[in-house]
């Protein structure tokens, strides 16, 4: 397995198991949005309109 792929696999493992790293943070945001945990999203600097549009496109 290439080093880049191994690194990506590690990053995905961290994200899925502990919501760590950049992918983990993104996963946490998506899960918060899906579960309507708005208080968790309000504390983060995000463009809500962009986030909503991206989410709706992803679930089509």
Keywords for this entry:
mainly alpha; single chain; 60 residues; elongated
Task: Please state the overall shape, judged from the principal axes of the Cα atoms.
Answer: elongated
Strand content: under 5%
What's the overall average pLDDT, rounded? Answer: 82
Could you give the order of the helices and strands? HHHH
Largest sheet report: none
Distance between the termini: 33 Å
Provide a count of the helices.
4
Poorly predicted tracts of residues: none
Q: How does this structure look, described?
A:
It is a single chain. With 60 residues, the protein is mostly helical. The chain has a domain at 24-60. The protein contains 4 helices and no strands. It has helices spanning 3-18, 21-34, 38-42, 48-58. It is elongated and about 35 Å long. The mean pLDDT is 82.
Helices and strands in order:
Layout: H1 3-18, H2 21-34, H3 38-42, H4 48-58
Helix pairs in contact: 1-2
Structure, briefly:
Helices cover 77% and strands 0% of the residues. With 60 residues, it is mainly alpha-helical.
């Amino acid at each position: 397995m290439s080093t880049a792929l191994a690194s990506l696999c590690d990053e995905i493992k961290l994200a899925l198991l502990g919501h760590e790293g950049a992918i983990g943070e993104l996963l946490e945001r998506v899960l918060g949005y899906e579960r309507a945990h708005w208080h968790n999203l309000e504390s983060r600097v995000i463009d809500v309109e962009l986030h909503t549009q991206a989410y709706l496109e992803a679930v089509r």
